[in-house]
Write a structure and sequence with these properties.
- The chain has 595 residues and is of the alpha+beta class.
- Helix content is 28%, strand content 20%.
- α9 (323-331) runs antiparallel to α12 and α11 (367-373) packs across α18.
- The protein starts with a helix and ends with a strand.
- The relative contact order is 0.15.
- It holds the Pfam family SBP_bac_5.
- This is ABC transporter substrate-binding protein.
């Protein structure tokens, strides 16, 4: 057979792939090929200035420039400012990816592979071109045992990775997983020269060699870190980067506690702060600089799913193993009292793992949900098939007293009775637990809860630890109760294995802090991940939400559909707000200093 004919036949046998500038999960991407910029940025934003910021979360220091391992405490800003991925997400859409390091993405019609083509202009900070081999190296590193186990959990369906040539790389899947091309497209890419050949878990304060818009300029003893904009940044004119990353320098200063941080802001030490405390927002953001307009106090609406925040109960602990006990503890939280006394009426109670969105399960399960739940009926509580579980309520005709009476009965059914001055099990052991926290503001809320628990004979003891010890104990699942917020997602998928699967429950360093080991939950996560369009995904997430809520792994807290921020009047921002965004990353990536 002629060689040319063999080549033509082999081409016909290869799976056909649809290539393009973007992909989205179950819908058509909003921005067409040839778009010039995202609508929520100012493409003509002026460049310049030095932005001063505080530590953006509970970290009070850092000892690593490596955000991909569970050892140590990584510095703020690394992922956003230094590491780029093949695709960039749009903050106007729930789940989409547009070309960044990749200038073309092709998902095979059978959805069992995805091929990316690296942009020939892409460069690392040391000037080296980004190649397909670098993408594979980054992937292999992240799924190794040296990196955080969350990457292995999310990417377990990737069967093989092939470098096709200098610029093209193909990921092949062991099963259909519509979300996987987007997940792979969002993975950070870095150079194999980073660390000089050391294993990734041995890289500490070695500046990353990556492709992002900023470089590390200076740092001081884990207390301060300055980035400077790379004058040779390769991607500044891309549609996914135009109008973004406008500050010449960005400095993070670390403060020991929230009081010191707030006072430093009012003294003018930095330019922007996100406030999560309702009390602080009402009572502390006052003074001459606010009256003069030098400092601006504002709220910005968002449409993010609220995620789940609450008192997390570690079901690995024997006292929390019974769901009736977990339900009883939840009945002791009086949110309405807290909202009046502590929060100035600013919050809404969380009633779902995906509150503030269409993903919330409500009422009775509908026909589409029942198609997923009925095959699991023998593994589920009958209550799952009734109205979706709502958190305790003390609004009339309900009351705290009635809730505590119900809690007492649940505890009795679970084998806990009050005698000799405490609630005890059959062996006579009192019901005691430790509440671990690394910051102060949640302590008063816990104390309000513990006062109610004392009426049931339960003793909860608070313990405050520093962030490093807190993180270490969380990675080891060494806690009874703590406060935690699960990251919100507009399109839940593979990360659910990390949070809720049986496999992750037994793997230290994962996000399954609650210790969920439910085969029905695993099946529902499979259904979410296998969803072929947005409508199917919404139904599967609602079914999962219903099952998780019924098991009472969390005593839900509250949420606000607004970001509360204060900032220097020198800053300006685009008037077209994105729909799904976090306040500080949005500011860092899209704001600018007024000329």
């Amino acid at each position: 057979m002629p060689r040319l004919l063999l080549i033509l036949l082999s081409c016909l046998l290869l799976p056909v792939a649809f290539a393009g500038h973007a992909i989205a999960l179950g819908y058509t991407p909003k921005y067409p090929a040839g778009f010039t910029h995202f609508e929520y940025v100012n493409p003509d934003a002026p460049k310049g200035g030095s932005l001063q910021l505080p530590n953006p979360d509970r970290r009070t220091s850092f000892d690593s420039f490596n955000p991909f391992i569970i050892k140590g405490t990584s510095a703020a800003g690394l992922t956003l400012l230094m590491f780029e991925s093949l695709l960039a997400s749009s903050e106007d859409e729930p789940a989409s990816g547009y070309g960044l390091l990749a200038d073309d993405v092709a998902v095979a019609p059978d959805e069992l592979s995805v091929t990316f083509r690296v942009n020939p202009a892409a460069r690392f900070s040391n000037g080296d071109p980004v190649r397909a081999a670098d993408v594979k190296y980054s992937f292999d590193t992240l799924v190794s045992t040296k990196a955080s186990p969350q990457f292995r959990a999310m990417l377990s369906d990737v069967k093989r990775v092939q470098v096709l040539d200098l610029r093209r790389i193909r990921f092949e899947f062991g099963r259909r997983n519509p979300e996987l091309p987007l997940i792979i497209g969002s993975l950070p890419v870095f150079s194999r020269k980073w660390g000089g050949g050391l294993a990734i878990d041995r890289i500490a304060l070695q500046p990353p060699i990556a492709s992002g818009p900023y470089l590390i300029e200076a740092y001081q003893n884990g207390r301060q870190l300055t980035y400077r904009r790379n004058p040779n940044y390769w991607g500044k004119d891309l549609p996914t980067r135009r109008g973004m990353f406008n500050f010449d320098r960005i400095t993070y200063r670390y403060y020991k506690d929230e009081v010191a941080r707030l006072e430093a802001f009012k003294a003018g030490e930095f330019d922007f702060i996100v406030e999560n405390s309702a009390k602080n927002w009402v009572r502390q953001y006052l003074g001459p600089k606010f009256r003069s307009g030098e400092l601006v106090k504002s709220t910005f609406r968002h449409h993010n799913t609220a995620g789940m925040q609450g008192f997390i109960l570690n079901s690995r602990r024997p006292q929390f193993a019974d769901p009736r006990v977990r339900r009883a503890l939840g009945l002791a939280l009086d949110f309405e009292w807290l909202n009046r006394q502590y929060f100035y009426g600013q919050y809404t109670r969380l009633d779902s793992y995906w509150a503030n969105s269409e993903l919330t399960a409500t009422g009775l399960p509908g026909p589409d949900e029942l198609k997923l739940l009925e095959p699991l009926r023998k593994q589920l509580s009958p209550e799952v098939f009734g109205p979706a579980r709502l958190p305790s309520d003390t609004r009339p005709p309900h009351s705290l007293r009635a809730n505590l009476l119900e809690a007492r009965e649940l505890l009795r059914q679970a084998g806990w009775t009050y005698r000799d001055g405490a609630l005890r099990n059959a062996a006579g052991k009192p019901f005691e637990f430790e509440f671990m926290d690394d910051s102060g503001p949640m302590l008063r809320v816990f104390l309000a809860l513990s006062r109610n628990l004392e009426k049931l004979g339960i003793r909860g003891s608070p313990r405050t630890v520093d962030y490093a010890l807190y993180q270490r104990r969380m990675d080891e699942f060494d806690f009874d109760m703590t406060t935690l917020r699960f990251p919100d997602s507009q399109s839940p998928g593979n990360e659910l294995y990390d949070y809720f699967s049986r496999k992750s429950a037994d793997t230290k360093g994962t996000g399954n802090f609650m210790g969920v080991r439910d085969p029905a939950v695993d099946k529902l996560i499979d259904a979410v991940v296998a969803s072929e369009n947005r409508a199917q995904r919404v139904i599967a997430v609602r079914a999962l939400d219903r099952v998780l809520r019924q098991a009472d792994y969390v005593i839900p807290h509250w949420y606000s559909a607004e970001h509360r921020v204060a900032y220097s009047q020198r800053l300006d921002y685009p008037r077209h707000l994105p729909r799904y965004y976090s306040a500080e990353p949005w500011m860092v990536s899209s704001w600018w200093f007024k000329p």
